[in-house]
Amino acid sequence: MPTIGEDTLAERYERSMDRVRVITRARYKVEMQWECDLDRETLTKHPELQTFPILEQSPLNTRDSLYRDRTEAMRLHYKIKDGETIQYLDVMSLYPCVCKYFKFPVGHPTVHVGEKWHNIQTMLQKEGLIKCSILPPKHMYHSVPPPRCNNKLLFCLYKT
């Protein structure tokens, strides 16, 4: 029997239908319901579930908030004018300093959910780490922050 990654959805469906035929031949009653029909029926019976927030129960990993290896030259050549300087800032080198001299969250995280957490000002009043999903603005050259896929930074072209 093939593993899950080696067969197609059509093959899985056929195997499921074969099992149903075997069970019905043994004179058992089989009731089947597609997931989409079940979801539709559940939302009809319980409309409050439409506004219920969906939470991913994944642990908070501090290292996930750190982005590395992102360098790009926005301009390859620039002649400075009088009074201008060109500067370079390495934010990642600040990490050990921040860990030593500034507050750092410890203990188990508190999960906050609800409409009041859609307001950025409410979130900024809290101390600690915030794990959230951010939709990138469409008018920027690079999204801030870039999304990750397989632990690699992904630079998307949103207008294509």
TrEMBL record:
InterPro entries, per database record: DNA-dir_DNA_pol_B_mt/vir (IPR004868), DNA/RNA_pol_sf (IPR043502)
* Catalytic activity entry: DNA(n) + a 2'-deoxyribonucleoside 5'-triphosphate = DNA(n+1) + diphosphate
Kindly state which keywords UniProt assigns to this record, in alphabetical order: DNA replication, DNA-binding, DNA-directed DNA polymerase, Nucleotidyltransferase, Transferase
Which Pfam family, any one of them, does this sequence belong to?
A: DNA_pol_B_2
Ranges of residues in domain DNA-directed DNA polymerase family B mitochondria/virus:
63-150
Q: Example GO biological process term? A: DNA replication
What's the top EC group for this one? transferase
Superkingdom to which the source organism belongs: Eukaryota
What EC number(s) does the entry state?
Answer: 2.7.7.7
GO MF annotation terms:
DNA binding; DNA-directed DNA polymerase activity; nucleotide binding
Q: Which SUPFAM superfamilies match?
A: DNA/RNA polymerases
Q: Which family does it belong to?
A: Belongs to the DNA polymerase type-B family.
Task: Output this protein's name.
Answer: DNA-directed DNA polymerase
Q: Which organism is it from?
A: Coptotermes formosanus
